[in-house]
């Protein structure tokens, strides 16, 4: 990497090394790493995340899961800037309570998704630096996954990966769950056990190549019986 | 008629021809929206200690490209001469090429002097080359070896300064490794104690620094003997896929059946060849 400020436009070396007035800025954001993944099945949904919290080259915590239980049928996974993740989940919890008290019923997954979109867009010009994925059951009891961008654009999906290793996981899911880029393969519907296996294997691979992903994997399996949690160890390096 | 290419006599001092060209390229590239390709760095934790009979050098084995692991098992302890080895941190190509150049020059020098090369000579050659390039060669090295004057350990920085010390660490994980050294280093350790200390220092870098990872390589140099232990410690194994644990073929199988990629057409051209030699080179399918 060359110090191009030592050379002028024409390529001739400048006479002196005065760098000129430099502006120092304070960045309100930090990147804390982490990967989140959600898969929707026929009657279940899975939200999984790694538990490593990092900054720069250091690790803040090896046990900071990014799945937050919102209701008995909905789990939110959020990665990105940890400060905004915490504030966002506090705000969502408060809004859920307010809805419960004024409408006398729990918010459905679809309603939570729509509400989260408006919360994120209300900060359109100073966004929450958070990549959100909601996993849960819809009113019919079918699995639902809603994926968001930092300013609130969302859509319903069958599966989605977000966070630092998302670019590594998403193509693998496209192939294994969406049967993309394959011919002559029978489109078997995804069972809960196969989905859990796939999620574990996929995170093992992500931990190999992404430095921000590792330590442990927290899986939340949402079914009509409730939310089951599993903890799997990952590489710690 | 052959044209004579007259070679220009080399000018003294620093040559900055390519710097001009590079800065022009950089500004033109940014106008179009491209960025200059960045060199791959090794992240890294490397360290060395002097013990009673010689030197122990240690290194991790992860090479990163940005924050993605490019190589899970690269070798960071480079050969300089039979009695001198060098660990490298910083830009991967720079450490590799610099150590190879100095190794080659040192071998010629040893033939010329008729003596075993000294660590101080390697140190002097490395620092003079790095200073000549004013820090543009991003190589941070830990040089260690045993010669006629005993064991010697140097740390060499990209701008060309060197330190001769009993224990040194370099790389992004150097703080984690140095913390271990400052706690437990003693002069005149035994070999096993020194190996354990270096192993623990590299392990601290591997687990606490995101730029370092995978396994621990050691190199123990004593008078007349070198133990290049790669890997000394497989501190991290890839997680076992859940389909492989049980003997029964479960759903965790990711092999593709023939025909998954559609075959559009097939043309077979038989070649009349005689088989002379057959070798097998395995891929890393882990």
Automatic annotation (TrEMBL), chain A:
**Record key words, sorted:** Cytoplasm, Nucleus, Proteasome
Q: What is its main location?
A: cytoplasm
Its subcellular locations are: Cytoplasm; Nucleus
UniProt keyword Nucleus, yes or no: yes
Coiled-coil annotation reads none
Any one cellular component term from GO for this entry?
A: proteasome core complex
According to its UniProt entry, the protein's GO biological process terms are:
proteolysis involved in protein catabolic process
Q: Which InterPro entries match?
A: Ntn_hydrolases_N, Proteasome_bsu_CS, Proteasome_sua/b, Proteasome_suB-type
> Hey, which family's this protein in?
Belongs to the peptidase T1B family.
Role of this protein: Component of the proteasome, a multicatalytic proteinase complex which is characterized by its ability to cleave peptides with Arg, Phe, Tyr, Leu, and Glu adjacent to the leaving group at neutral or slightly basic pH. The proteasome has an ATP-dependent proteolytic activity.
Q: How does it assemble?
A: Component of the proteasome complex.
This one is known as Proteasome subunit beta
Species name: Oryzias sinensis
Automatic annotation (TrEMBL), chain B:
Q: Where in the cell is it found?
A: Cytoplasm; Nucleus
According to UniProt, the reaction catalysed is: Cleavage of peptide bonds with very broad specificity
Record-level Gene Ontology MF annotations: threonine-type endopeptidase activity
Q: Which domain of life is it from?
A: Eukaryota
Gene Ontology BP terms: proteolysis involved in protein catabolic process
Keywords linked to the UniProt accession = Cytoplasm, Hydrolase, Nucleus, Protease, Proteasome, Threonine protease
Specify the Proteasome beta subunit C-terminal domain's residue ranges. 251-280
Name the catalytic site residues.
Answer: 44
Give GO cellular component annotations, separated by semicolons.
cytoplasm; nucleus; proteasome core complex
Q: Which Pfam families match?
A: Pr_beta_C (PF12465), Proteasome (PF00227)
Instruction: Say what the protein does.
Output: Component of the proteasome, a multicatalytic proteinase complex which is characterized by its ability to cleave peptides with Arg, Phe, Tyr, Leu, and Glu adjacent to the leaving group at neutral or slightly basic pH. The proteasome has an ATP-dependent proteolytic activity.
PANTHER family under this entry? METALLOPROTEASE TLDD (PTHR32194), PROTEASOME SUBUNIT BETA TYPE-7 (PTHR32194:SF4)
The similarity comment for this entry is: Belongs to the peptidase T1B family.
The annotated subunit structure for this chain is: Component of the proteasome complex.
Name of protein: Proteasome subunit beta
What is the organism of origin for this protein? Answer: Oryzias sinensis
């Amino acid at each position: 990497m060359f110090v191009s400020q030592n050379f002028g436009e024409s390529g001739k070396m400048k006479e002196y090394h005065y760098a000129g007035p430099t502006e120092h800025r304070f960045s309100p954001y930090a990147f804390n790493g982490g990967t989140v993944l959600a898969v929707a099945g026929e009657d279940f949904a899975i939200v999984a995340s790694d538990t490593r919290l990092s900054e720069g080259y250091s690790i803040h915590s090896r046990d900071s899961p990014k799945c937050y239980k919102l209701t008995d049928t909905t789990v939110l996974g959020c990665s990105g800037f940890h400060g905004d993740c915490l504030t966002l989940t506090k705000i969502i919890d408060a809004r859920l309570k307010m809805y419960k008290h004024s409408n006398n019923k729990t918010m459905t997954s679809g309603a939570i998704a729509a509400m989260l979109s408006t919360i994120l867009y209300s900060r359109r010009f100073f966004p929450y630096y958070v990549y959100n994925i909601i996993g849960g059951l819809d009113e019919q009891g079918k699995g639902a996954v809603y994926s968001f961008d930092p300013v609130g654009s969302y859509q319903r999906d069958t599966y989605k990966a977000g966070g630092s290793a998302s670019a590594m996981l998403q193509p693998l899911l496209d192939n294994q769950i969406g049967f993309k880029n394959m011919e002559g393969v029978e489109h078997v519907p995804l069972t809960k056990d196969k989905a859990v296996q796939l999620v574990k294997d996929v995170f093992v691979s992500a931990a190999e190549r992404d430095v921000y992903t590792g330590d442990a994997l927290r899986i939340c399996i949402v079914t009509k019986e409730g939310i089951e949690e599993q903890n799997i160890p990952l590489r710690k390096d | 008629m052959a044209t004579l290419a007259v070679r220009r006599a080399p000018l003294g001092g620093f040559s900055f021809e390519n710097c001009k060209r590079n800065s022009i390229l950089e500004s033109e590239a940014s106008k179009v929206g491209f960025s200059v390709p960045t060199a791959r760095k090794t992240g890294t934790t490397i360290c060395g200690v002097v013990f009673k009979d010689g030197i122990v050098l240690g290194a991790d084995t992860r090479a990163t490209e940005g924050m993605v692991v490019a190589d899970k098992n690269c070798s960071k302890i480079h050969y300089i001469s039979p009695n001198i080895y060098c660990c490298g941190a910083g830009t991967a190509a720079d450490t590799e090429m610099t150590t190879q150049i100095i190794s080659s020059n040192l071998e010629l020098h040893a033939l010329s002097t008729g003596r075993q090369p000294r660590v101080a000579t390697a140190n002097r050659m490395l620092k003079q080359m790095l200073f000549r390039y004013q820090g543009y060669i991003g190589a941070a090295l830990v040089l260690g070896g045993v010669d006629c004057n005993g064991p010697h350990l140097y740390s060499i920085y990209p701008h060309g300064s060197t330190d001769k010390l009993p224990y040194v660490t370099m790389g992004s994980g150097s703080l984690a490794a140095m913390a271990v050294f400052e706690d437990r280093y003693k002069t005149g350790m035994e070999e096993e104690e020194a190996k354990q200390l270096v192993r623990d220092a590299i392990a601290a870098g591997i687990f606490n620094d995101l730029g370092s990872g995978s396994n621990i390589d050691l190199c123990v140099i004593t008078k007349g003997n070198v133990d290049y232990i790669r890997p000394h410690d497989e501190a991290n194994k890839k997680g076992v896929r859940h389909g492989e644990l049980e003997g029964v073929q479960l759903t965790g199988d990711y092999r593709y059946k023939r025909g998954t990629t559609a075959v559009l057409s097939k043309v077979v051209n038989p070649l009349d060849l005689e088989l002379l030699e057959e070798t097998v080179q395995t891929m890393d399918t882990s």
